[in-house]
Amino acid sequence: MGSLRYSGDSIEGYTRMHGLMPYRRFGRARSLRSDRAEWAFGCHVVTELWLELGRYVATERSTRLVAV
């Protein structure tokens, strides 16, 4: 699997495609998949399934992607 890199404006589309949404839009942490547990990382929400897969999560606090 190749490494993920920050790619400017495409990062928002990437996070939306994988079930992450900025929680400021809703006023509280909220997942696109409402049937799963959720945690806030920076300004994005990640589902429990996402954590189990060991994928990468985008954060707004830095310009890098962090592994969880």
Helices and strands, in order, run as HEEHEE
- The unreliable regions are 1-9, 23-31
Q: What structural category characterises the helix and strand content?
A: alpha+beta
CA gyration radius, whole angstroms? 11 Å
Major beta-sheet overview: 2 strands, antiparallel
DSSP summary, beta strand count = 4
Distance between the termini: 16 Å
Give the count of helical stretches.
Answer: 2
The helix fraction, in percent, is: 10-25%
The strands making up the biggest β-sheet line up spatially as 1-2
Residue share in β-strands: 15-25%
Integer average pLDDT: 51
Based on Cα principal axes, name the global outline.
globular
What would your notes on this structure say?
This protein is α+β, with helices and mostly antiparallel strands and 68 residues long. The protein has a domain at 20-62. The protein is 21% helix and 21% strand. It is built from two helices and four strands. It has helices at residues 10-17, 48-53, and strands at 38-41, 44-47, 56-58, 65-67. It has a two-stranded antiparallel sheet. The chain has a two-stranded antiparallel ribbon with strand order 3-4. Strand 1 and strand 2 (44-47) form a beta hairpin.
Main traits of this protein?
68 residues; globular; 4 strands; two-stranded antiparallel ribbon; alpha+beta
List the helices and strands and how they pair.
Blueprint: H1 10-17, E1 38-41, E2 44-47, H2 48-53, E3 56-58, E4 65-67
Antiparallel strand pairs: 1-2, 3-4
Compact summary:
This protein is 21% helix and 21% strand. It has helices at 10-17, 48-53, and strands at residues 38-41, 44-47, 56-58, 65-67.
